[in-house]
Predict the 3D structure of the following.
Amino acid sequence: MTRLKGRQPSATGPTKSTRVITYVVLGVCLVYFLVPVLWVVFASTKSNADLSTSFGMWFADNNLGTNYHSLMSWTQGYFWRWVGNSLFYSTTAAVVGTLISVMAGYAITHFRFPGRRVLSGAAMGGLLLPIAILTVPLYIVFHSMGLTNTAWAIIIPSCVSPFGLFLGVVYAQASVPRELIEAARVDGAGEARIFFTMVLRLLAPAMVTIFLFIFVATWNNFLLPLMMVSSPELKPVTLGLYGMMSYFAPEKGAVMLGALLGVLPLIILFFGLQRYWQAGLAAGAVKG
């Protein structure tokens, strides 16, 4: 047989046209996501007249302080309390919901008990139900328990996340070796010690991902707080700004400034946990 000398193996990477199309699509997505954010930044410096007369993608002159004063005046000083309420609700629900999700995922994956598959299927079925469908039944239940117009009426429903349970099951299947658990049991470790000293460390990337999903879902939830709370002291920032927009002649620049200030904690959180979140998504993509 004749040997072919000097022949290089064909490249397996993407072609030039594929890379160009990828860059174009990513550029369009970048513009699609960044333009609304930039518009909010610019709109927060404008008055109602500026919003209708000036060029949209640029700042107005010397109106930022006025908008901030209007925001504080209309909200009667409650704005930063609303932001604090959103932080409290979202952080508490995310911490508790993350722990529940990984505990349930670990139990479904590594324990055998009657009805395990039925319970798992029912929980996964919650992924098909929009949260809006459950809001009215939740209100009826919490009203009968006397918990409406309290922080618990927002925190307790937000702690349960079918998607978080799904991620907990996926990660527990892929990241927690049965051999390691059996070895720990042979050495005399109890189930609580195994979970809190070993399993939680193995599931750390999953926990960051679940935490972010529950945090953002709780922060952005509007219908549940609208149904559950009425006191100004308990409102999250989304519900408070809605009340401002429902006013007859709102200062839209002040509302945009409130929306911008209200989203800052989310931006800080995502940048702070970006490395861990990306690691968790990458691990889930490979192991799933």
